[in-house]
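Suppose you are handed a protein chain with no further information: no name, no annotation, nothing but its sequence. What can you learn? This example shows the usual starting point.
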Amino acid sequence: MNLQLLEPHDAEQIAELAADFYPEEMLYDAAEIAAALTSATREGGNFSVGLLARGNLKAYMLAWLEESRVEGLRESVVLIDDLALATGEIEDLRLMLSHLVRQLQGAGLAHLAIEGSLLPDTREFFLDQTDFFASLGYEMVASQDYWEDDFGAELTWVRYERPLEVEAELSASEVWDGVEFPE
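A reasonable first move is to predict its three-dimensional structure. Written in structure tokens, the prediction is:
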């Protein structure tokens, strides 16, 4: 399988794969996905990747720069907005997360927290990756279960940050101009 950056022209395949995982009320159409990817690319923060086998999308992770969902906290984070694993393999999740961290390091953004919301059927699958996240230099610092009326489901919001000792090591090697969102 090949790992590649997802762009707006991939929206149709993303929507088709998502339809295999989500109830109808949680689906976005290809145009909405393309618009989100266009916006993320334009803002310099598209970290979305897909796993392809013979040109067919088998797994994807939609991730981009966003404002934190922590009330009263105005900071940029990397939002993992959507994740689908048709393969069902933990190794594929780990491959995409490792790639995300390398992208962040390459962009000088590894200091940013990672946030996302988990569905009930993927919650344990994702939360069981504590040791793996630690191997990438992140730890879960917060989680909160909440009811999402639009979807009629209880979701779990999570936040991962770099521990201070990892931050100190990175700060010596990263070049960052303090700007995360171009004007």
